[in-house]
Specification:
4 copies of one chain form a homotetramer. Chain A is an alpha+beta fold and 378 residues long. Chain A has helices at residues 8-25, 29-35, 40-48, 67-79, 87-101, 104-116, 178-181, 232-238, 240-268, 280-308, 314-338, 349-356, 367-376; strands at residues 121-124, 140-143, 147-158, 165-171, 182-188, 194-196, 210-221, 225-226, 270-271, 274-275. The longest helix of chain A is centred in the C-terminal third of the chain and has 29 residues, at 240-268. The complex binds flavin-adenine dinucleotide (FAD) (4 copies). One flavin-adenine dinucleotide sits between chains B (123-126, 130-132, 156-158, 205, 210, 359, 362-363, 365-366, 368-369) and C (269, 271-272, 276, 279, 281-282, 337-338, 340-342, 344).
Chain lengths: 378, 378, 378, 378
């Protein structure tokens, strides 16, 4: 069934994004994978091309687009399997925190530079000892009168290695109630005591930098805090539906990408003198995959429409994140199988898709956590 | 996510249908199951209530509604688990054949009486020896100059026992090409040589009559044919997308029905001093089911919207039939399990749902046949 | 892979059992299903044929066979889909309770008559309000000095309608610790205040009687108790591994039965001018089913060997019950599908198998309870 | 359930193997992964330790062990996740070809040196254009009177980069019947015209060398042929059951390895103040995995017993390969999920297990090909 989501602006955007990913990203992707991160100047190029902070108003350097624009960019990223690129986290997660909860000064200070690619943004919640249970973090910022003193460490931070600013979740209170004790800080790279690990070696998403961050007596200016002390947890909760939908959109794009490659492969690869796609089991498998991908597409689009119209529930987003990420894995697993031995070779897009996209079930809240959320809404 | 499909007319219709199913059908359903068919006069009552042929124009006794109205009626039927009722086949499959392909006389003759419930309609394609392969039917109508002579037998015919007219697919040609040799006939019950078996004993849908029909030298008037000789196959193909979507809608309704019963049960049934729904495995299972049901709902609604707008592809409908019917079985199977021993007891709605709804994967073209269709479109 | 479990005695037994099920049971099975229970005299015939209490020593009227003999009988029962027959519960669950925990008098009194079929045995633990949580039962036996006074009700009791004696779990203590307060009683049918409901209507196993039992001020003689007061729970736990293995064996037999019927059907049924079994998707489906059935067979046999050698762990038996019952449902569901419309018709063995065998996931402790047990052993 | 397969010799062997893998392999495995192959001298060390060609008689340098010894070695390899090591292919596939079909001279020439690790063996059937369809190979050896002239190329050859000898399947006839035209040759590395690619980059098994081999006018001595011309296909078929069982054994070992790591992790990792393993969904997941792993273990052991006793059918081995490899993927996928973010990090054993073991469904004949085989036996 056709999609009914896009207007001309969106389509124009798609063109720009497609060109960028095909010309700037695709040819360099293997190199990114080797080095464990994209080239730093890719961010600047993306800024120039107008691909960053598209949903932030123009007065802050953004493009004033809607969330469908954000989705379009991710779809185009998925179309070339460019798992190395962390634009979406930067533009659609980090920037909105500053835009929604920051002071006018913070917005003026950071957003335009994030839009241009001068600053790369990250967000650091997870710690070695705690991921699902955000209230259990140990990183702490002490109010020292004229500054905050930050101590602790974070792990698995996307864009962490290249980031210039990172929003850090830290305990500021002692009430014992995690949700009331948590605050968010904008921490700039380069501060004394803030060091980064080397990009972590992962089974997939090898070009996307994922880092440990260490904070040892880092002095933060008083105005590094985002919103009021103790309101961090609330802020984190507010945009979760959108953040989860983002993952669904990525996973959906990846499933489509892998499916199309596989359909193509199956039509061309010969065995026993016939195209693979002519064997009934493969034909039915492809039909099954097509159905699942189509279901996911319709659901994701409907969620996106709901999101834009302000009526996407957290449970709806959690369903999308959960179901689409599992569908994505299921589909790609079959795509690998249909490729035979080639499905195991790094240079084949579905092989990389297999390892890259396993993560969608894990981050942004594991799927078990999603089911907890959905269950609570029943 | 909320539904955005219905206008006020639809909702008014829903009210009428809900009242009818609750008052006229639900209290008698067990009896229908015992006797293997609904009471004959239920049809007349449904006609009076304006629940038949809603999508047929008013000039032919219908209500001139759209297909969303048809869906609304089916949803309400599913809401009370009324698997005995065959209105949808009568109104949304049989009547459209006559409306779309019949002569003015045939329309005038049959449609108003079908709308009032005076005539019950059925359609007979499947034969003991052939179901999936429609071109392989053996029933044959010989052109005897002033009449057609019909011989053969049909099996698994819904509404067959109570039907007053039945559209019969029969071979009329000898080209050897099944698709070119097939014609459709409107056969009236009561004709000499046309006999019916007793309703078949099934594992579910026990109240819905499913019959064998036998034609032994049945003389049909020349104008009993629908459309031109040899065009039967084409007619059958034309409305298939809609017919399959109908099954998806039924299956979707059934999945929701079972899920709601189960959610309710799980919240109330206690074990180990706590509601079943408070055990994490059950909570996550319910969350999983909720997701799947929600996916199916969004997809079915989108297909229905596409159908109404004339853009539902056969493959899209096949995907819906296939995926939703399998989801329906998966979901209801879990619902049974969550009910423990009660899930195996006939009087529990989910128990009946388990056996009733298994059929959606089978009729209207088995799901394998659906996958063939989808595959062909890739 | 071949089976290596049976010696000549076992095989001789298989012959007897096969003959009995084919001659005495199969021809009457539909009737049993209509009436909701087997004929009472089937029990006597089975006793005569030496099919009851085969594992009980000869001095108590049994045959002194091992548990492989019990398995052989169940396999033969499964081979004809004779779900109506409750011999296994009677011989391999109820009788061992009396044999293992009864006084010499109780053994002499009941076992020989159970072996001959003069007495039909049942065991009643489940109550309307509690199934999984056995410690939560409400049925209570008060010690009235010279008798026990039994009050309460039981549900879902296999062989309940025809039973002559039933082992009833009841609370006798007030410690508040379910496990220490529970006792078992041998209750004879015919006692004042003991009434039976009519056989419950189920979706499957329609010929097997499953009943509610009501105890209203039933006076039990002092020696009706099995073992010491308060030891009931311990007794129930002791033979659980075996009881669960029995279910696995039944489910395994049913899966094989359905698979064989389906393989046969698929080789003979034609569609599009070819046997169903010649379509690659069906061929691969059959291969998949064959693998799963074979896995289950090897595992069940190995568990049986372990059981006979006294080294089957509760977790091992729980695994078998859980995995085999789910495999059984999965396999039979596919078997139904391969039968097309016929898979939905009561007269087809796989159709009945579909509804009959769903129960294995539920009774004997639901599969969730099995997973609890397995988890505890990890 | 306990295993009953091993005698003291086997257990002694297990000790040796365990020590070897723990001391010689585990500490170097990451380096093997970096370089894309094991160190060449690991082969010599393994030879010295008596871990190569254990099933070949002592007169040819082997150890005269049975196939259970081979299994023991593989289990120990799996126990440390040592996917880089290709001993099994060398010892249990390549050597038997020479032993079973070679001339006395060939045996004397190659086997002792293979046993010592002086020669590394490989077998090359697959070509870029054909994998599943072995009869479709294009590599050809022309009989030039005093030598064979070999031309063609092979892909995905395990041990290819380090191999000293490789058994190459090539066409020698022109009958058009692939099976009658195929011969096997023992080709020594170093021959003119025989070149190797660099190890292929794969998503997993990164330390195991998998190579392309190119033959351009390679002159082979007349006695390089194994068996008679045109008998290659028959030889390939003969040991297939064993070769497939080997894959099942590896996959089974890997599933157990991952499960044990995960059980351990789940008991120790805390979230929300409790061990992960204490959440009911995780507990039940672990129970489910334990069941599946246990099923696979019992089946694999039974197949191994059957193999040793000469009664393992090709279909039985295909079932084992197919079911166990899929179970292995299913289990490890869940293990990854239970590890949360750590499941995606290369340094975690389950992360590597996830990518390493996906291949079992693909090589040795894809699982679709297995299902073809099983289906043929039904
Ligand atoms: C590639 C990648 C990028 C990432 N990027 C970022 C980032 O930019 N910023 C950031 O802050 N984090 C990031 N993360 C971290 C990610 O959000 C966490 O890994 C994730 O939330 C899970 O936390 P954990 O790894 O600590 O798992 P745990 O919390 O330790 O969970 C382990 C397992 O226990 C289960 N579990 C936990 N609680 C329950 C419960 N109550 N009931 C049942 N099961 C439970 C989980 O589902 C999981 O299966 C990233 C992770 C990855 C892999
Ligand atoms: C309750 C009920 C109501 C029904 N109502 C009606 C009705 O009103 N009118 C009517 O005409 N019919 C009706 N049917 C019949 C129904 O449409 C057929 O049962 C269905 O189309 C399947 O046909 P079959 O039973 O002959 O199965 P078969 O065609 O014999 O198929 C058997 C199996 O083979 C598979 N198969 C067939 N062809 C292929 C292939 N090419 N490749 C792979 N697999 C294949 C099928 O998927 C199926 O699994 C009804 C059936 C039921 C159960
Ligand atoms: C055909 C048939 C024959 C039977 N024969 C007998 C008989 O002869 N004698 C007899 O005593 N009983 C018999 N039973 C009863 C049977 O043993 C119970 O139905 C079964 O144990 C489940 O109990 P319940 O129905 O009360 O379900 P409940 O205990 O109410 O369970 C409902 C649901 O909750 C789940 N659940 C329960 N506890 C937990 C938990 N802690 N964590 C997660 N999930 C949980 C269950 O898995 C199930 O899905 C029979 C049942 C049937 C259907
Ligand atoms: C790590 C690794 C190590 C290997 N080691 C060796 C080695 O040492 N020596 C060696 O010779 N080879 C080796 N191989 C090759 C391996 O055996 C082949 O990859 C495998 O047999 C599949 O062949 P293919 O890749 O050409 O897939 P194809 O044959 O192209 O198959 C593609 C897809 O089509 C499907 N398909 C094919 N035929 C049919 C059919 N009739 N019906 C339905 N579906 C069909 C397959 O199942 C698969 O899904 C190795 C492969 C890998 C990945």
């Amino acid at each position: 069934i056709g999609r009914t989501l896009f207007n001309e602006t969106h389509e124009a955007f798609r063109e720009t994004a497609r060109r960028f990913f095909e010309r700037e990203v695709a040819p360099n992707h293997s190199r990114y994978e080797e080095q464990g991160h994209v080239d730093r100047d890719l961010w600047n190029k993306a800024g120039e091309a107008g691909l960053l902070l598209t949903a932030i108003p123009e007065e802050y350097g953004g493009l004033g687009g809607d969330r469908i624009v954000s989705a379009v960019i991710m779809e185009e990223q998925a179309r070339v399997g460019a798992s190395a690129v962390g634009f979406s986290l930067h533009s659609d997660i980090v920037a909105p925190y500053i835009f929604n909860f920051g002071t006018e000064e913070q917005k003026q200070n950071y957003l335009p530079r994030m839009a241009s690619g001068e600053l790369v943004g990250a967000i650091a919640m997870t710690e070695p000892g705690t991921g699902s249970d955000l209230q259990g973090i140990k990183t702490r910022a002490e109010d020292k009168g004229d500054h905050w003193l930050l101590n602790g460490s974070k792990i698995f931070i996307t864009n962490g290695y290249l980031c210039d600013i990172v929003i850090v979740a830290a305990k500021t209170g002692n009430s014992g109630q995690g949700s009331a004790d948590t605050s968010l800080f904008i921490v700039e790279a380069g501060l004394d005591g803030f060091t980064k690990g080397t990009p972590l070696k992962k089974i997939g998403m090898k070009g996307q930098d994922t880092c440990e961050l260490f904070f040892s007596d880092v002095k933060l200016p008083k105005d590094a805090i985002l919103g009021a002390p103790g309101t961090g947890f609330g802020m984190l909760m507010k945009e979760l539906a959108w953040e989860r939908l983002l993952i669904a959109i990525l996973a959906q794009g990846a499933a489509e990408f892998a499916f199309e490659h596989t359909l193509d492969y199956a039509k061309n690869r010969q065995a026993f003198g016939r195209p693979i796609a002519s064997f009934q089991v493969q034909r039915h498998k492809l039909a099954q995959l097509a159905s699942e991908v189509s279901l996911g597409r319709v659901y994701t689009d409907e969620c996106l429409r709901a999101e834009v119209e302000g009526r996407l529930s957290p449970a709806g987003a959690a369903s999308a994140k959960c179901w689409v990420s599992e569908m994505c894995s299921r589909v790609i697993d079959q795509c690998v199988q249909i490729h035979g031995g080639y499905g195991f070779m790094w240079e084949y897009p579905v092989a990389r898709a297999f390892v890259d996209n396993r993560v969608h079930q894990i981050y942004g809240g594991t799927n078990d956590i999603m089911r907890e959320l959905i269950a609570r809404s029943l």
